[in-house]
Write a structure and sequence with these properties.
519 residues; alpha/beta; Rossmann fold; 4 domains; 4-stranded parallel β-sheet; 13 strands; binds iron/sulfur cluster
């Protein structure tokens, strides 16, 4: 270590500069040689090369006992996200505190917003004797301190492993006056060791609707002209939910979003801290029972909830993250069918402009090969849009993807000449995708921030179009749904393609004959 340090109070360096300074370089080298005792650089390089081979891919795909970088998170984070779309609602996670810190930071890192949630902070004694006392004290504290209009309860692994009964615990807590007897405390069991965040989302929405709509089937409830819409777990919810409301306004349709997080995850900086902002109100949630229909934007996020809506006598319709021209057409036609109103001229104009933009850029999209990963619905919507653009989705991968989902992807691929080289990989993870990309190269990867490690490894450029996006800012404020949203997605893909072409043609006197001003 050198005597003189590179950093002082007057000269503070960012970490990526600081750790390249001589004293840190020497420290890292010492750590490596004296403490890590790793394999030689040659051996690391040899194994690294082997992991890119067909031989390794076969072993990788035979793997059963371990999952490496799955494209999913655990149930409670989805439940928390769903709860935060209701007005004044405080998510209350029954279980361990560390889990809740993880959900909060995950959402905060994506939306760049503070994220409020509490936990019952179960520790060893609660794990042995049950968490009833944690629930009683926790609900009382949360109600008194944070003044919510509703507390939505979900669980972590710990509470589920010991089998805590939320319904009984909440009733007990109300008997002990933790919260008033008529205060809404919907709940959902969200065991994190099965399903994923999209199942947790479904469980929580159903839990909240059950709280206000009742458990028994009642097909004969009087119906209004209103249409409910459930967005599902969506990292672009701020832009998308606002776009959906704009579309409904153009249409003149009374559209009620159930779980609208768009304001809660986009609070203004005007001197007032908003612990809760916007969201579906309790009155709107109650009234939504009488809607004539409920639409889900993401089938795999709402399996149980849509069944529940059906049992209440509502028509239901489901989409798979509808993006692009055809996806938006189908959504608008469904709104027209359900409302009896024609698709407005203003939206038809937007459609024409999108088609024009696609035609303008089709030469750059045509034949480009893509890997797509993420939630099942996102993969379906993205694959469909790529096919529409003349691009070729090759590897489509979702850890939460089922056999049914694989068939849906295959049907999409079979319906287009651009789908000939594509295949769906349900239940697989990003380490599988790495093998796929090394053995069957693509031009671009579409996914989330976790794909940056794949990008570094495979040298295939990444386009961030789904949750979570931690290392880029503000994309979630722009819609990806509707014709305007499709245009945003198209621009994001094209920008990456053009950056790539520029980077590959910028050597003066060697490759710059293609470093064109006009693309
Ligand atoms: S998987 Fe279980 S332990 Fe891990 S964060 Fe989720 S609830 Fe907590």
């Amino acid at each position: 270590m050198t005597d003189k340090l590179s950093q002082s109070a007057d000269k503070v360096l960012d970490h990526y500069t600081l750790f390249r300074q001589p004293e840190y370089a020497a420290m890292f080298e010492k750590k490596k040689t004296e403490f890590e005792y790793g394999h030689s650089d040659e051996e690391v390089a040899r194994v690294s090369e082997w992991t890119k081979s067909e031989d390794y891919k076969a072993k990788n795909f035979a793997r059963e006992a371990v999952v490496i970088n799955p494209t999913k998170a655990c149930q409670p984070i989805g439940a928390m996200f769903a709860a935060q779309g209701f007005e004044g609602t405080l998510p209350f996670v029954h279980g361990s505190q560390g889990c809740v810190a993880y959900y909060r930071t995950h959402l905060t890192r994506h939306f760049k917003e503070p994220n409020s949630a509490v936990s019952s902070s179960m520790t060893e004694d609660a794990a042995v004797f049950g968490g009833l006392n944690n629930m009683i004290d926790g609900l009382a504290n949360a109600y008194a301190l944070y003044k919510p209009k509703m507390i939505a309860v979900m669980t972590t692994c710990m509470a589920e492993v010991i089998g805590d009964d939320l319904q009984g615990f909440i009733a007990n807590a109300k008997n002990k006056d933790s919260v008033p007897a008529d205060f809404p405390v919907p709940y959902a069991h969200t065991p994190a060791f099965v399903g994923s965040h999209i199942v947790g989302y479904d469980n929580m929405i159903k839990g909240i609707l059950t709280n206000f709509w009742g458990t028994s089937e009642n097909f004969d409830t009087p119906k209004t002209e209103q249409i409910n819409l459930i967005p599902g777990f969506d990292g672009f919810a701020v832009g998308n939910n606002r776009e959906l409301k704009r579309i409904a306004g153009e249409f003149g349709v009374k559209l009620q979003i159930l779980s609208d997080v768009s304001d809660n995850f986009d609070t203004p900086m005007d001197g007032e801290y908003r612990m809760y902002d916007g969201g579906t109100t309790i009155e709107e949630t109650k009234e939504a029972l009488h809607a004539k229909a409920t639409i889900s934007m993401q089938e795999y996020n709402t399996t149980q909830t849509l069944q529940f809506c059906k049992e209440k006598g509502q028509d239901v319709a489901k989409f798979n993250y509808p993006m692009g021209v055809t996806g938006t057409d189908e959504l608008l036609l469904k709104l027209a069918e359900l409302s009896g109103k024609p698709v407005p001229a203003s939206l038809k104009l937007e459609r024409g402009r999108l088609v024009d933009a696609i035609a303008d850029s089709h030469t750059h999209m045509h034949g480009k090969r893509f890997a797509v990963y993420g939630d099942p619905d996102f993969c379906l919507g993205m694959t469909r849009f790529l096919l529409e653009l003349g691009a070729e989705p090759v590897h489509i991968l979702s850890t939460s993807g089922s056999k049914k989902w694989e068939k849906q992807v295959k049907k999409l691929l079979d319906g287009s000449p651009f789908g000939a080289s594509g295949a769906a990989h349900g239940g697989k993870d990003l380490w599988h995708l790495r093998s796929l990309i090394f053995t069957d190269k693509v031009d671009y990867i579409i996914g989330n921030s976790y794909g940056k490690y794949l990008e570094r490894d495979t040298k295939v450029p990444l386009i961030r179009l789904t949750y979570p996006i931690f290392d880029r800012h503000h994309h979630h404020r722009y819609p990806t749904w509707g014709y305007q949203g499709a245009l945003n997605v198209l621009v994001r893909i094209l920008d990456r393609i053009f950056e790539d072409i520029d980077a590959n043609t910028n050597i003066v006197g060697q490759t710059d004959y293609s470093f064109d001003l006009i693309r």
